[in-house]
Amino acid sequence: MTDKRLHFGWFMNFTANEWNTPFGNDGNPWNGKFYIEMAQAMEKACFDYIMIEDTLMVSEAYGGNSEVYLKYATMAPKHDPAPLAAIMAAATSKMGVVATMSTTFYPPFLLARLASTLDSIAEGRFGWNIVTSGEDGSAQNFGMDKLTEHDLRYDIADEYVDLVCQLWDSWEEGAVIRDQETNTYADFKKVHAIHFAGKYVKSRGPLNTVRSPQGQPTFVQAGGSPKGRQFAAKYADSIIAVANGVEGMKAYRDDVRARAAAQGRNPDDIKVLFVVSPTLGTTEEEALARKKAAAADPAFFEQSLASISSVTDIDFSQYDLDEPLPELETNGERGSLDKFAQWGSGKTLRQLVLDAGGTSDSIELVGTPDQVADKIGEAMEQVGGDGFLISTQRVSKQYITEICDGLFPALQRKGLARTEYTHAHLRDTLREF
């Protein structure tokens, strides 16, 4: 019998959640307790991992100032994902926890040490979401005038990952011996300097942290551009992907798997998770009404355009909503721009925003839990695998309950989602099927 189970993650930010609705939190998400409860609900549902995204600035990309971002708490405020990952990991025991850290702004030794520490705290369930960052505003917060060129950022990241992997391997397995008779904690002959000197980064090593349970954290990456796809195919254990419809999903997955095979990797070791934002209801009519109501919100277009402006560093406030977009280029997230713009479609900016639904949905999922579970199964049959990443601009206790206690039981009844964890480490969980 063919195993038709899929992998599932949840894409979130350490931001304010639905603070202005009846289903928001108590107004203080910043102590992390809301997100700990979210992670525990997800673990009960048997998600593979929760992924905490990050950016490092208060954007002024939309309209030339920060008004929309701060007014609606869109993209800002946003707190550091690493401490949240630590307390989420401490409050769970089986689900993976992934944090975003940028190769552009973290010194390699600092990132390697932090990731190793987090993997030890998580007992082998930590993942690093590898990003190169795509905003000049972030660069300016770190003393740079602007980001380096898009493809060059990936060249630097390639060398960077080589370096941090060597740092993680600077402690051999078995270096910690804890021999009471000789009063020896670690065997210095099994801990090595690496003397890495590359074109872009260098470090002496070794790390001053013990080898973590996974040796190196699980790698998560979102590669949209050709350069990004090549990078993801080389390193990622799981890829975060956005695509336009089932055909786009299949084309993307086939492409990265072919790239992985060409680099000598087993494509089955890479799990491609497509971003979706299911809208659920007790009836299909209720779900459709919810979807329509969200798009009717007066702030919907402004928030949606502010979000895509932030990640692409393009000010979409300058374009007429009822005209097609001109051809645009970016030094920011090229994959996100291409996904949003649907080049050649002739659609107006208004239609593009409505199509995106305020998110980066790969396919539209609207209906009852059973209907949405069926749509998920049908899509994956055509795509070939591997699963989905739940994402929403705002997260509420109500939405968490709808997904974890509504959609997931429906997926499990249909054999589409795991019902238990069988491995201790995140990488092994992803490779289970």
From TrEMBL:
Family annotation (Pfam families): Bac_luciferase (PF00296)
GO molecular function of the protein, one example?
oxidoreductase activity, acting on paired donors, with incorporation or reduction of molecular oxygen
The membrane-spanning stretches of this chain are none
Ranges of residues in domain Luciferase-like: 32-386
UniProt KW keywords: Flavoprotein, FMN, Monooxygenase, Oxidoreductase
InterPro entries reported for this sequence: Diverse_substr_monoxygenases (IPR051260), Luciferase-like_dom (IPR011251), Luciferase-like_sf (IPR036661), NTA_MOA (IPR016215)
The entry's FMN-binding residues are D54, T100, H150, Y154, S225
State the similarity comment: Belongs to the NtaA/SnaA/DszA monooxygenase family.
Protein name as catalogued: FMN-dependent oxidoreductase (Nitrilotriacetate monooxygenase family)
